[in-house]
């Protein structure tokens, strides 16, 4: 019988497979459902402007709890993990790597191929890096 899945692998697998996760800024009790991209051990979210809203994250250095549910019907939470949140700056190497992946994943972009330029003007891309801490599943 196999043993438990190591924490980094559980976070990676569950978050990568989930289309939507619930993000709760530490210090609040208001989770927000967001679409995201899992890439290279981090979760990325576009917020602001015409995109989904996560107004609590105006700068780097925040923390959040990310709740990942199973896609299976009647299944509950798979994992709740704690993340350090950072802003991905337009023009940075991280921006150049991640934004094309987010752009490809974004369904029904209102401005098509101009979407990444709009994000640079009016939105923020946030990275959520797992701290290695879990939050209670309750």
Give the topology:
Blueprint: H1 7-17, E1 20-25, E2 32-35, E3 37-39, E4 42-47, E5 62-69, E6 77-88, H2 93-105, H3 115-122, E7 124-134
Antiparallel strand pairs: 1-2, 1-5, 3-4, 4-7, 5-6, 6-7
Structural features, described:
With 138 residues, the chain is of the alpha+beta class. The chain is built from 3 helices and 7 strands. The chain has a 7-stranded antiparallel beta sheet. The relative contact order is 0.23.
Largest sheet: 7 strands, antiparallel
The first-level CATH class name:
Mainly Beta
Strand content is: 35-45%
Tally of structural domains:
1
Brief sketch in words of this structure:
The chain is α+β, with helices and mostly antiparallel strands and 138 residues long.
What labels would you give this structure?
138 residues; Pnp Oxidase, Chain A; seven-stranded antiparallel β-sheet; 7 strands
